[in-house]
Write a structure and sequence with these properties.
Mean pLDDT: 84
Order of helices and strands: HEHHEEHHHEHHEEHH
Oligomer: single chain
Number of helices: 10
Helix content: 55-70%
Number of strands: 6
Largest sheet: 4 strands, antiparallel
Distance between the termini: 63 Å
Length: 450
């Protein structure tokens, strides 16, 4: 009967149990506002699976396939999920009785009855009545932390895929820059030989020779730099996909166009993207975990109720075999802790607020990432089209200048200037193609699908 007042007071206190702060759901955008976003086709999530395959590049597909199976970053993220599952299993165990057993047998000389056997065996059990949800909320926090790591695993995978695609595009662009420079170098060397021959016959001044040599040396100096950048891109891919640099040489030992230049962008509705983006899902789970942890901290204000008992058998030289048992109910509550629990509650609530604001920030960053990628693609595409026209103009101007020079209508410096213009236009066009393809990769990544 003495337990009744304690149980009654415990139930009374439970009516005051706090369940969390008052947080409003973050506002989601209803439409995209980026430049020309209204002209982009809207698709469903199933149309975006394995989006890198629309780039139609077998080497890129192979590199991403290796990444998905061998990347250290992805394997680390997977191991963290397994770790979180173990922690969750531990937390779940506290919702059930804890049962143990022990037994001992010994033989010793008591000094009275000579040598005798001692025997003891018992079972004991205890169960914490989760009246105020402390253990349930610990389990909820463990569940949400597991969801955080699962979302982080998908975020890591998506980031790796996008980074491999971006680096591969970068590699192909530098490779193409090398090819352009080498092609122009051959033309410039032929021009230089022609000018030297003309100088020998007195048909061209030494100044023209010097100008032609200057152009040759300038173009030749750019080739080692482009090769260095290409090699750096290959080495970066090595760390991303989980292979040694030497293993990538046969995979990349071919020339190919920059992938993705002719691929058109696609979109999904803002709400759909925010529902599937791994970073947003991780932020939601983190907030939910912080809310559960805050409830756990609050539950420390209230008593803990524990049922326990044991059953055993004991036998020794001094006593016959005895059956021992015990059943008890216990309660404990902090009466005077000088603000320890309140401090823990305040800290937990502050963590909850931080998680909520981080969620809002993550949503804003997700929307901004999509909008930025859309704007980048549209503007760079405009730039690429203009540069394509500029290259065509420069190429025709070079042909015309060569004809006019042979006819004596213009000076050789005009020919050299036309060659330089073609080189610069060609190089700028390649850079724009690579930038456009990389902006498309960023757009696909921002959609949160792989």
């Amino acid at each position: 009967m003495k337990t009744f007042p304690l149980l009654a007071s415990t139930l009374l206190l439970s009516a005051c149990f706090m369940t969390g702060g008052d947080f409003q759901s973050p506002k989601n955008p209803q439409a995209w506002t980026a430049y020309e976003s209204s002209n982009i086709d809207m698709v469903e999530i199933q149309n975006l699976r394995a989006w890198w395959q629309v780039f139609d590049d077998a080497t890129l597909n192979e590199l991403i396939g290796i990444t998905l199976s061998e990347s250290p970053d992805r394997n680390i993220a997977e191991a963290r999920i397994i770790e979180a599952r173990g922690i969750r299993r531990t937390q779940r165990s506290f919702l059930f009785p804890q049962v143990g057993a022990s037994a001992s047998q010994s033989r010793e000389d008591t000094g009275f009855a000579g040598t005798d056997n001692f025997f003891d065996a018992r079972f004991d059990a205890s169960y914490e009545i989760d009246l105020f949800g402390k253990n349930r909320n610990n389990l909820n926090a463990a569940d949400e932390n597991l969801r955080v790591l699962e979302a982080s695993y998908h975020d890591t995978t998506l980031t790796l895929i996008a980074e491999v695609a971006r680096t591969y595009i970068e590699y192909r662009s530098f490779q193409k820059q090398v090819a352009i420079a080498e092609k122009n170098l051959d033309i410039q060397k032929q021009t230089l030989e022609l000018i030297r021959t003309q100088m020998e016959f007195g048909e061209a001044p030494q100044l023209d020779v010097e100008r032609a040599e200057n152009l040759v040396n300038t173009t030749q100096s750019s080739i080692p730099e482009f090769k260095r950048l290409a090699e750096n891109s290959r080495l970066s891919m090595s760390a991303l996909i989980g292979r040694l640099p030497e293993d990538l040489i046969p995979i990349l030992d071919n020339e190919a166009k920059i992938p993705g230049v002719d691929v058109k962008p696609v979109l999904m509705a803002p709400t759909s993207i925010l529902n599937i983006r791994p970073d947003v899902r991780a932020a939601i789970a983190t907030f939910n975990a912080s809310t559960s942890s805050a409830k756990v901290a609050t539950a420390e204000l209230f008593p803990t109720l524990t049922l326990s008992g044991f059953f055993g058998v004991s036998e020794s030289a001094f006593s016959a075999r005895e059956v021992i048992w015990n059943v008890a109910i216990g309660a404990a509550v902090a009466i005077l802790d000088f603000g320890r629990i309140e401090g823990q509650i305040d800290a937990a609530r502050a963590v909850e607020i931080q998680a909520y604001e981080q969620l809002r920030k993550t949503i804003l960053e997700a929307v901004t990432e999509v909008e930025t990628a859309l704007t980048d693609y549209a503007r760079i595409n405009q730039q690429r089209l203009s540069l394509q026209s500029a290259y065509d103009n420069a190429d025709r101007a070079l042909e015309l200048s060569q004809t006019l020079y042979r006819e004596g209508e213009i000076s050789f410096i005009d020919v050299l200037d036309a060659q330089r213009t073609v080189n610069e236009a060609d190089s700028a066009l390649v850079t724009a193609e690579a930038n456009q393809a990389q902006s498309l990769v960023r757009l696909y990544k921002s959609l949160g699908v792989y």
